[in-house]
């Protein structure tokens, strides 16, 4: 054999890799392991002194946003609702059954409403109201007095007349009228109207 190695006797030389490369590999592996352990230990110390759980919780809250608390008052209730004893109601009978207007007016009076005119309905409504009744008032009563009166006759149609003057309301009795809403149910509806439940809190899902 030629080159670096020569056979000069009856023994062959052993061919080995230089030992320096092996030492470099070992040193590299050991250094990497030491750095890894040191880095892990540093992270543990940071976590201990800064409070890892608190930081994580704070980060979660920051990402999710703050919960919106329910409002104590409904957004649509811009005006306070009037009490029944401040509402004047004209009771008008648009049916062919006699006596309904007076009987209904007497019951409304017992429930605290003021009674105005008690008569037959004008030609505009006479024998033309197919439902239980029509509640008619000025435009300003749409979200105030009309809903209060509406608790006494569930299912009645509500209408407003922009040209109407004053604050009086008309309760016009229709063909399917069988009486006012039961007082217990009307009282519950009136209480719910005056004290609406707050809107549910909005939550942001993460």
TrEMBL record:
Pfam families: LytR_C. Keywords: Membrane, Transmembrane, Transmembrane helix. InterPro entries: LytR/CpsA/Psr_C. It comes from the Bacteria. The chain crosses the membrane at residues 24-43. Residues 63-83 are annotated as: Disordered. Residues 86-177 form the LytR/CpsA/Psr regulator C-terminal domain. Residues 68-80 have a biased composition (Low complexity). This is LytR C-terminal domain-containing protein. It comes from Streptomyces thermocarboxydus.
């Amino acid at each position: 054999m030629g080159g670096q190695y020569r056979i000069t006797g009856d023994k062959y030389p052993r061919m080995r890799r230089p030992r320096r490369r092996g030492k470099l590999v070992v040193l590299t592996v050991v250094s990497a392991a030491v750095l890894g352990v040191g880095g892990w230990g540093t992270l543990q110390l940071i976590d201990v002194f800064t409070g890892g759980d608190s930081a994580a919780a704070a980060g979660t809250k920051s990402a999710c946003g703050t919960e919106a608390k329910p409002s104590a008052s409904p957004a649509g209730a811009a005006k306070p609702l009037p009490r029944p004893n401040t509402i004047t109601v004209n009771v008008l009978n648009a049916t062919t059954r006699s006596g309904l207007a007076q009987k209904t007016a007497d019951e409304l009076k017992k429930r605290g409403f003021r009674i105005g005119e008690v008569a037959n309905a004008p030609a505009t409504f006479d024998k033309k109201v197919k439902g239980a009744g029509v509640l008619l008032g000025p435009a300003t009563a749409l979200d105030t007095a009309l809903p209060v009166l509406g608790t006494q006759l569930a299912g009645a149609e509500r209408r407003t007349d922009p040209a109407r003057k004053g604050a009086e309301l008309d309760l016009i009795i229709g063909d399917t009228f069988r009486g006012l809403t039961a007082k217990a149910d009307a009282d519950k509806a009136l209480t719910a109207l005056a004290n609406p439940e707050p809107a549910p809190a909005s939550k942001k899902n993460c």
